Amino acid sequence: MKNIFNRPLWKYLWIEWIKPILIAAALAMLIRTFIAQPFKIPTNSMYPTLRPGDRIFVSKFIYGARVPFTDLVLPKVRDPKTGDIVVFKSPTEKKKYLVKRFIAGGGAHVEIRGGKIMIDGKIVEEKPLRDLFYYNRGEYGAENKVMDVPAGHFYVLGDNSANSMDSRYWGFVPCKNLVGRAFVIHWPLKRIQLLREGD
């Protein structure tokens, strides 16, 4: 069977439709796996920085994207910093992703005192952490308790401390669970903005 261009129909379909769709799908998969991935904010645990319904893009290459089904990690741009908004797999629910504020990595000593974050005995003075109030709650956020973050793990908190299930309750997150850093809100239109360091 031939089409109006005097080519076999299968060849026309392959060149004009199937091949471009396959290429686009492969590129989308590569981008989603190694460069950036979209996520939707379901709760107000990061309010007011992130609000329910916000859609964000997460940079996966910045901390070194993981090759699926292997233990391989691609070269990273940098390590997570205190204050980064990170996405990671929940340490308690395997198929759930969480968005929180990175506080400290392995080897650090974290304490919540008077609503402020202390790392290695010093109050964090950088924005936005200096402007947020953190409540002493949970086993890993109790008053007068210093949390020693174990190697290969990190400690996270939600900006909305009064309504956030975070490291105060379930402890430390394995570094292998880290997906990437949130860098932009792309929807809804009135909320479009870059999430820069210090936001």
Short synopsis of the structure:
The chain is an alpha+beta fold and 199 residues long.
Helical content, roughly?
A: 10-25%
Q: What's the number of domains?
A: 2
Question: In percent terms, what proportion of residues is strand?
Answer: 25-35%
Uncertain spans: none
Biggest β-sheet strands, sense, barrel: 8 strands, antiparallel
- CATH superfamily of the largest domain, by name, is Umud Fragment, subunit A
User: What is the level 1 CATH name of the largest domain?
Assistant: Mainly Beta
Overall radius of gyration: 21 Å
Mean pLDDT, to the nearest integer, reads: 92
CATH architecture of the largest domain: Ribbon
Number of separate strands: 12
CATH topology name of the largest domain: Umud Fragment, subunit A
Report on the structure:
The mean pLDDT is about 90. The chain is α+β, with helices and mostly antiparallel strands. The chain is built from two helices and twelve strands, in the order H-E-E-E-E-E-E-E-E-E-H-E-E-E. The chain has two domains: about 1-35; about 35-195, Umud Fragment, subunit A (Ribbon), CATH 2.10.109.10.
Any descriptors?
single chain, 199 residues, alpha+beta, Umud Fragment, subunit A, 2 domains, 8-stranded antiparallel sheet, 4-stranded antiparallel sheet, 2 helices, elongated
Show the helix and strand layout.
Layout: H1 9-34, E1 36-40, E2 55-59, E3 85-89, E4 97-105, E5 109-113, E6 116-119, E7 122-123, E8 147-148, E9 153-157, H2 167-170, E10 173-174, E11 178-187, E12 193-194
Antiparallel strand pairs: 1-2, 2-11, 3-4, 3-11, 4-9, 5-6, 5-8, 6-7, 9-10, 11-12
